[in-house]
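Problem 3 from the worked examples.
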Amino acid sequence: MKTLKDVISLKFKTSESEGVIFHGEGQQGDYITLELKKAKLVLNLNLGSNQLGSIYGHTSVMTGSLLDDHHWHSIFIERHGRNINLTLDRHMQHFRTNGEFDYLDLDYEITFGGMPFSGKPSSNSRKNFKGCMESINYNGNNITDLAKRKKLEPSNVGNLSFSCVEPHTVPVFFNATSYLEVPGRPSQDLFSVSFLFRTWNPNGLLVFSNFADDLGNVEIDINEGKVSIHINVSQVKKNRIDISS
């Protein structure tokens, strides 16, 4: 199909930071790919380039961050020729594509949740989407409804379930005076800790532990919106290590 206008909308949620949300391409070098990269949303679009290289149509736009938080995010893409409005969670970004062409010429299937292996280097380096999508609408077609009623030709590749499984995580809420204390592991040379957190407060203590035999301590905190790690080792000359990110 060859379109001058496109309207694409959907909602998604995932805990993965990488994945192709949808993809379409054509024989003339046109393509459109919406994907997550490092938990940010990236739209790659090409309305056509010529072989001489004087017209180069590739355009890439990035928006959002931390989109792997397993919360619903909404996307709305509106294209009229080279003018694009990309809206993520009500935040709209307007841009114009490179090149001189106005039509998006897609000869092959449009895929949602991944892209078919084409043998191109770009296809095998991209991960398929892992998570949930709803309200997928492509140029007036309700894709999720058509998929559920098996009205799409060709049909789904792989197993699709029309429900969204919630992750089995149990969050803990801390107020200003509460904390959680767990027993240490004696005679262990390794100290390892991992966790997810969310807060609006710019300062606060996240983790603290004393080492056995008065060898020092480790402290992880938020200081003015940055995560800082402080390691104090009592029996070394350079006895304090500070890391901030």
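Problem 4, a separate protein:
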Amino acid sequence: PVFAGMNGSAIENFSCVIYNILLMNCTWQAGRDAPADTQYFLYWQKSRNEEEMECELYIKDENFRNTGCIFQNVSIGIEKAYFLVNGSSKDSLIQFYDEYIDLYKIEKLMPPSNITVNCDEIKNDCMIQWQRPQISHSNKDMCFKYEINIKYK
């Protein structure tokens, strides 16, 4: 069968987020029916022509089970990235979980930087300027919408 392994042993609630431009954090929960000794391993492939790599820095729970991974120096490509989490246990075969993800869709943007406000009391106006957030996947200025909340004190 395609899904060899015990039902309910694959991980659940897999999700990843890219933040601080270069870091990616992926987390998951152990399968509901996975044996207590199950250990999980994450592999990912940024694109079809790059090789598959295992997580180098696992996040562990109180039972030393891998429940996440921190990646450093992640760059976003054009293709979807492939993620695979498989598991091993002495007691039974563990089902794997896999997913293709567009990395640009999971990037959490940095706030705008160098915000300056110059007000002219005589003209009764203010000029607010900022630099757009840094993003990892492109240098384009398009696609940014800003919202300014001004509270008068």
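Solution to problem 4. The chain is about 0% helix and 40% strand. Residues 105 and 132 are 18 Å apart (CA to CA).
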